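Quick one: structure for this chain?
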Amino acid sequence: MSSPVETTAQNLAADVRSGARSARAVLEEHLVVIESRDDEVHAFNLVLADEARASADAVDARVANGEDPGPLAGVPVALKDNLCTRGVPTTCSSRILEGWRPPYDATVVERLVAAGAVVVGKTNLDEFAMGSSTENSAFGATHNPLDLTKVPGGSSGGSAAAVAAGFAPLALGSDTGGSIRQPAALCGVVGVKPTYGAVSRYGLVAFASSLDQIGPFSRTVADSALVLEVIGGHDRRDSTSIHEPAPDLRSVLDRGVEGLRIGIIEELSGDGLEGIAGDVRARLHEAAAALEAAGATVATTSVPSTVYGLSAYYVVAPAEASSNLARYDGVRFGLRVDAPTSGDMHAATRTAGFGDEVKRRIMLGTYALSAGYYDAYYGKSQKVRTLLADDFARAYEEFDLLLSPTAPTTAFPIGEKTADPMTMYLNDVCTIPSNLAGHPSMSVPFGVGDDGMPIGVQVLAPATGEPTMFRAAAVLEASAPPGHPAVGGSVTGPTGGATA
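Got it. Here's what it folds into:
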């Protein structure tokens, strides 16, 4: 019998639907793995063992009755702890949401459960999704399961670590500036940010509403395609939801890239961007060569405004966060620190409830939106956002897809960048442009760096271009250098033993 780490979600679901395996047995295998390792990894804020067993038993009962539970029948799924789950604590890894249990499920949670998936737990994240290393959580840092001395990336580091460690075949995260793709790259798994509006944000606790998007983590490209088919499509409860059905992605995975035009983004390819490591640059060019060998035309192209993406993002995102997080006031839900007056209570609650990084971004955003500075900062950043979208549009007139590194380096040591926020922010330099433009992009594992840790290559597409993006991702997956943990290899951990 294959281990949970080696089995794809599609194969598990097929076995459960056919009756070859029970959903309960599949779940118990994964719970054993969680029990054995999550004390050291800390991927989860909460493991829902009893609830998951009840869900798995319900799936098995449907199979026994001759019913089809759905395309994710019996597949354990981990949820980032900023996705609302009815009656289950949803903390955003912040003290300020202490004790809050949502009265409803996020749309993506409803759709996963309707497809037969079994929710196994809520994963750790940088508080309110603000961070690139999952060290900003009020409940402690998550460790990279491939090397426990290193970060898993962020902010969805718990979800990425859960999949990389074999705790669940699938996980959901949110991506505001790279929070799915960057940890996917650092943990050696597939991570997808869909087109803005392609997946409902209803029930996602907001960070920056014009940038946030929900997407999957998986060990294979095909599994991510399956999840997007399940969670995608229009939702009337989300006013930004696209009025289109979820795309058919699995059917295109074997079409290859023959005839596609793929551009390597010059500004993000490493040659002109400070901080891109040599091993990351090498894997990028190897990935480009693999696509070319598969029949694509590959050339370097320029998307000039991407060099301003980081600066624009760190005005737009904090400004929206400042507005969204104003609701945490000690009155409506979550933490309340009593004080003599309502103003004092409000200040005391937010002081005690928010961590340093969240406070930093609230203050930055409030300043950018204040009278006298709005036009100079927020307004100008929105103009940069428009320039960036225009530059992407010109690039997509010539190319079907674009290519870049996902993260500038492999996973870095825990604690290395926490004292310098700007150094931490640079981890998202390659991923932020897609969020500002609202376009889909995904990280595909492609070999390892000089330190033996995973490297991800980012595939970018125009809006609603997921089918073409997944075609290239499937080719990269098939062409990835041997020894990668996502395709059956192992990475040596700090103790010298194989950790995945």
